[in-house]
Amino acid sequence: MKRVFSLLEKTVLGSPVQFAWQKTLGNFIAVTGADHIVKIFDRHGQKKNEINLPGNCIAMDWDQDGDTLAIIADKSSSIYLWDANTNKTSQMDSGMREPMSFLRWSKTEALLAAGTAKGNLLIYNRQTSRKIPILGKHTKRITCGCWSSEKLLALGGEDRLITISNHEGDTIRVATLKGEPSDMQFIVMKTDDRMSGSETTVSVIVGKKILYLFNFKDPDNPIELQFQQHYGSIVSYKWYGDGYIMIGFSHGFFVVISTHIREIGHEILQTCNHKDNLTSIAISQSLNKAASCGDSCIKIHDLSDLNEMYAIINLEDENKGLDQLSWTDDGQLLAVSTKKGSLHVFLTKLPILGDSCSTRIAYLTSLLEVTVVNHIEREIPITVSVEVEPSFVAVGRYHLAVGMNNRAWFYALGENSVKKLKDMEYLGTVINMCLNSDYAAALFEGKVQLHMIESEGLDTQEERETRLFPDNDDKSKILCHALTSDFLIYGTDAGVIQYFYIEDWQYVNDYRHPVSVRKIFPDPNGSRLVFIDDKSDGFVYCPVNDGIYEIPNFQPTIKGILWENWPMDKGVFIAYDDDKIYTYVFHKDTIQGSKVILAGGTKVPYSHKPLLLYNGELTCQTQSGKTNTVALSTHSFLGTLKGLGPNDMKQMLTQALMLKRFSEAWELCKLLNHQSSWNELARACLHHMEMEFAIRVYRTIRNVGMVMALEQIKNIEDHNLLAGHLAMFTNDFNLAQDLYLASSCPSAALEMRRDLQHWDSALQLAKRLAPDEIPFISKEYAVQLEFTGDYVNALAHYEKGITGNNKFQEHDEVCLAGVAQMSIRMGDIRRGVNQAIKHPSRVLKRDCGAILESMKQFSEAAQLYEKGQYYDKAASVYIRCKNWAKVGELLPHVSSPKIHLQYAKAKEADGRYKEAVLAYENAKQWDNVIRIYLDHLNNPEKAVSIVRETQSLDGAKMVARFFLQLGDYGSAIQFLVMSKCNNEAFSLAQQHNKMEIYADIISSENTSNEDYQSIALYFEGEKKHFQAGKFFLLCGQYARALKHFLKSPNTDDNMAIEMAIETVGQAKDEALTNQLIDYLMGESDGIPKDAKYLFRLYMALKQYREAARTAIIIAREEQCAGNYRNAHDVLFSMYSELKTQKIKIPSEMATNLMILHSYILVKIHVKYGDHQKGARLLIRVANNISKFPSHIVPILTSTVIECHRAGLKKSAFSFAAMLMRPEYRNKIDLKYKKKIEAMVRRPDTSEAEEPTTPCPYCEFLLPECELLCPGCKNNLPYCIATGRHMVKGDWTVCPHCDFPALFSEFRNLLQNESMCPMCSEKVNIASLMKVVDCTPYLKLEVE
After folding, report:
1. Cα separations (Å) of 656 from 3, 473, 660, 700?
2. Between the CA of residue 826 and those of 148, 539, 818, 847, 859, what are the distances in Å?
3. What pTM value is reported for the model?
């Protein structure tokens, strides 16, 4: 709080100090001390007058208008009156003999009540100068009193009485008190009934401890309020609000209570405001503030929230403490007296006067001080002391003007200094003033005077120095004006806004509004202007194009407008009233044209007046003479974005887009990183026709289509055409059409409507813009109408669409087709059918046929289908109208089985079975075909063949039935099984003893175990063990199956034993296995069975080692019996099985197989005359002759002969010598006996060395037929074609048995033989492949 002035103890001279503010105006303060003088000061501390008294001042009081100050002095019976208007003092004799003790003016009239020291009363009427003396009102000194608004007077005196009197002095009521009264006030008690607002209650402090409430209408029920002892005595109390009392206590406490009858005595607030003592309290209703003083400080609270401290004023130099406290009625000044005898006046509320020019603001900081600041450009604040308390302030680029009434003072503003230029008087009271860099414009009494601020030193023409507006011939009154750097703009009561161009010194523009213009607010350069008219509506006016745009949601309470001064934010302005700031944006270039939108609202803090708006920050002036900045809620995106949620950021994005702050919106979109946000930004760019920015956004979100579309149109100069395209992109098609039609290319509207399929609009536009296009649009419209079922209009548009021009033949054909279809749909069938038949299109005939068919016009429909070659459909429709002759004609072209079926049924009904059977065949209805062949055409062979082909169940049943009637039970059973009627087939087989046939048929089908079991039980009953066993095996009853197989009588092929082995193999049951082994060994019947069955059993059981041992035994037996091929096959099959199972092959088996194979190869090579190979193989066999006991002599004889033929004389001799042994000699064939004897007698031991080849393991060279390598001691794999050992580079395998062979030799062998000598499978020479890597075949497989 700023101190305005202080009157120290030297000035006041003495304590205690009394003072009283002038009522209502508060321009003067009357102060007195102990020096018998009342001094009168103005509000700036200048002494105006002083009144000398004969003694100390007892009391002083101003009348209700503040015109007259009344004073009474000690030991004097006179009343002193000072007139504030004339500054004159007068002395009035009261007519009382005793001195005065009390003084109080009425609240409503110029009535003064004065009490004396002896209890008498004088009532003085200032207007009539009438005095009414009332003697004996009280018996002792009158000390306190007050007037009510109903002109009642309450008095209190030392006689402890309260008297209530009327303005004539007549006593109405008297009440007795317990103590001396003080501080008396009339009040309105708070009641439930809000209407009763009369002052019927007097409040008074009794004995400094009790607050006494006396209702003179209810004198018997006074209210006494006592307070806690530790509060101290009551110092002062004030009424405020709706019946609340604020009471100050001497110990520093201050308490608020309510006087509502239900709440009375209840403390609403209690606080200790001062530590030691409290001396006074004051309330300002206009400020809504309360103050208390005590110790050496003043504490100010807001009445709306007393708990909060509003301000503290410390007076530390006042060591004796403070005394009384009082506010002016307007709340501007607060005076406090001190115990030391001083008086201090503080400024608590300033008139809110301020102005701005660009970013510079000037505002009142004290009653006689104006501060000029420019926070934006960081200029040092300049303080200007002014001579008078101004009623207006204006600031320009280089000047400041302040003034009151009809005078103004001008100051030049330097960088750090202020120079007073001049003062000027105008022809009337100045309402408002505006400055620019050179001129000032003052508005007074409906006129504006424009004049230069500094005319000295400037070479200015005389007539340009000053001018009065409006001109003499214009009788309108100017209501508002503004001054920009170039223009004086004013608005009149006739609704005219005039632009006066200062440079050319002439009017350049005017706008006429229907009603008077109350206020105008141009933007910084004057190119736009907001004005408020007499109806409190707001408008934006653009003088450039005379455009006028209404401001939406404009409140009638709006006090003023501020334009945004930030250079980038053109078009943003705020409108403000006492409570709220509304942010508006003027969008000049949008696809919808120029318009004003409301961007949002911000609450205004209490008593803040906006002065300057810069980048969303509003600088406001406050009552305390300071400025405060308010951030507009619409610009929240300019603050920090950290830690904000997506919803907050989305709201900010919407605000940024409303304000056209695209760069900030871009940053928000980057943070949000959501497709919808980017789309919103892109749409806003399109709306504001910001092409480059829109392209940038769409490129970021990869919307290629939009980027390409915008790139194509961005260079269009026609504003309307470009806006039309953008409106279309934003789906505002009606707007787009209006814009296109207003552009240089109106046909774009037609194109758009066609693309959107808005055919009605397109046709309307085409009539005006492109009549040639009408047929084509009509056709497309007709298609849509047809689709929606509006056939009448569709037909009309198809007819309109026919051009008759050969150039558009295809188009015309479509229209004619439409006419045909619509005619049919409209019921004009003849026209439609004729049109369709004439038309070249097949599809049309089909479509028209379908329409006719749905309308039940079958013959026409069929005719069109037939013409369109839709034979299936035609036949179907002919069937519906029973035209069988036509159906028969069309049948060769028909592919639909359904139609053939319908035709077949019709023919069958007519008894024409051959045609029916053909039609059934075409319809693939095989059951019907079979039925007709059996029932009507008596051709069972054909029926049977069809059943076999199609596997038809129902057909099979029919055939079975047919054979049953013929008595051919076997065939009947077969077809019953085929038709899955197994139970019937079984019964039939049982009845007619055909179970074997049934069993044969069923075992080849997928049959259930129950069926097999029933057959097995049947055969069991018949004692047919083999068949019973077979079917028990099929149904998985292995024990019963084995029992029957073992009971089955032996046959030549021993099938029963084979089946027994299979049973045990499947069963995998040890008990059954042992049972069968016992049977095979002969333990059950004493007859051992052939070993081959044991071998097969082991194989079935997958017991391969036992099988191998058995195989060796079998092979040995076969060898002994001379069945070498059988022995070879047994060993080979066993060898292959063991190889498959990856089991090591016993060496004995491998050796035996090798010797037997060598023996078999001999015959092949000898047959083809290769004696060398034969001899070598025979030598190998002869060396193992013990393996061939039944053919020793023939084998040795063959060996001798082949060795001789091959030139192996030495080998021939050694084997001939062996033959000469006595046990063999007589068994030699006589044919060769002499020859062999001769060989032995005359031996020739010459013999060529056997050729050598490398070992496949170690590359050691060894004889070809040698199978044991001396180098690595490995048994070598042998060639199945020659018996020689294998060689790495010449390796192949048999494709069937995988045994190795020399590639070259095997090929040679296959030239003559087609079988593999090992597995006897047929081998194609072409399938032989050379094995490059033979390593897998060299892994040891033999034990």
Report:
1. 45, 50, 6, 19
2. 96, 59, 12, 15, 18
3. 0.56
